[in-house]
Amino acid sequence: MKVVDIRSHVLLDPDFDIGATSSAQDTIVVEVVTDEGVVGVGETDLNAWIARACIESPGTHTMDQGIKHLLLGRDPLDPEAIWRDLYVGTAMTGRRGAVVHAIGAVDMALWDIVGKVRGVPCWQLWGDAAVSTLTPYASLQPDASSMSVYKETMVAWARRAVQAGFTAVKLEATFDGPYRHKGLRAGDEKITEILQTVRDTVGPDVRMMVDVQYAFDSVERALRVTREWDDLDVFFLEAPLWPDDLTKYAELSTQSKVPIASGEWLATEWEFRDLAERGKVQFLQPDTGRVGGISQALKVCRLAADLGRQVVPHAWKTGISTAAAAHLAMVTPHMPTFEFLPPELSTSRLRRELVREELVFENGLLAPPTKPGLGVELVPEAMAEFAAAAERVWPSAAGMAR
């Protein structure tokens, strides 16, 4: 079996809002095509136009190649060996960041191929089942047009998630820093107010996490805010500080009563080793695409086990990414939950319409995946509509693959 083509699809929700600071509004879907007709599917959480350039651009020497050039003609059934070659073959441009994120989409598609060829769900390629069912959490999605509307819709989302059966929720309380949705700004005391409101809504038995999305500019500020949470039973605080400052992360992680989580932007097992050993965070959060694909996500899970840390993946794209996270969770006993929203609870059209996914949410749980590969199927009509929307934004770079 050989790889004969890579199709890179830049897709966009036609109703995107640049002020929303949400990467769920676009995606790149990569199809790796083999000479025997088996096609693998992957995606990554990266500017889709940049991801496509990383895949399709040519190169002029052995460590500055485009990903597609390096992959054509390869046997797809050894993704980890291919990953090493892609990593070295793009090292002058990559090693971290966008190129590794783009490799992640390809790597995901390769594992999808392996599962399909062997007739088993991907997780069975990696080991025995660590769990019999999967427990996802719901990311709440309030309207950020004003603080009063934000609070009102946050409560509505929390109530809706619990009614749907979720036993874990994560709320964004981002009123400062780079992720302020639609310019919403408020003092740090509003974070605690929102947390208290959600806790009152969901009750004491629902696991509650909070993401402030790099809002704090000092350890002292983060500690001052979290000291008010002693009675709120917060499972973890996500991304409190800028991800590059591991010294501050270590200081916060060792002083905070609330466990610290981070890692959604990181690429490769090496960055996660630094985050765990130098930054001392308790929860590692690899995004399966951004980290470099499933091959690297598996290494991060093993690293976490060795260091006594827990893993809670980031998955803020489509059903492709959530499927990959579910397969990882099947073989990772130290993954207590992962990010998942069923289509009916998603505000993003890409999440609702792009794929037919195997995962069915019922009574707060997901059954183990059983279909070969990742178990997702692209919807052609949705692909065409979202590709046309991307083409309108940037005709020279978007659209369906040539």
Describe the structure.
- By secondary structure, the chain is of the alpha/beta class.
- The chain contains 13 helices and 15 strands.
- The strands form four sheets. It has an eight-stranded parallel beta sheet.
- Helix 1 (48-56) crosses helix 4, helix 5 (147-164) runs parallel beside helix 6 and helix 7 (219-226) packs parallel to helix 8 (246-255).
- The two termini are 23 Å apart.
- The model is unreliable at 398-402 (pLDDT under 50).
Give me the secondary-structure topology.
Blueprint (H helix, E strand, L loop, with lengths): L2 E10 L13 E9 L4 E6 L3 H9 L10 H5 L7 H11 L7 H22 L17 E4 L7 H18 L3 E5 L16 H14 L4 E5 L7 H8 L7 E5 L7 H10 L4 E3 L5 H10 L5 E2 L9 H14 L2 E2 L7 H12 L7 E2 L9 H5 L1 E3 L3 E2 L2 E2 L9 E3 L1 H14 L9
Which outline best applies? globular
**For the record, what CATH class of the largest domain applies?**
Alpha Beta
SS elements, strand count: 15
Q: What is the residue-averaged pLDDT? A: 94
Helix and strand composition category: alpha/beta
Rg measurement, Å: 20 Å
The CATH architecture classification of the largest domain is Alpha-Beta Barrel
Order of helices and strands: EEEHHHHEHEHEHEHEHEHEHEHEEEEH
The separation of the N and C termini measures 23 Å
Fraction of residues in β-strands: 15-25%
Summed up, the helix count is 13
Unreliable sequence segments: 398-402
Q: Using the coordinates shown, work out and report the CATH topology of the largest domain.
A: TIM Barrel
Helix content bin? 25-40%
Largest sheet: 8 strands, parallel
How many separate domains? 2
The CATH superfamily label of the largest domain reads: Enolase-like C-terminal domain
Q: Widest sheet: strand order?
A: 10-9-8-7-6-5-4-11
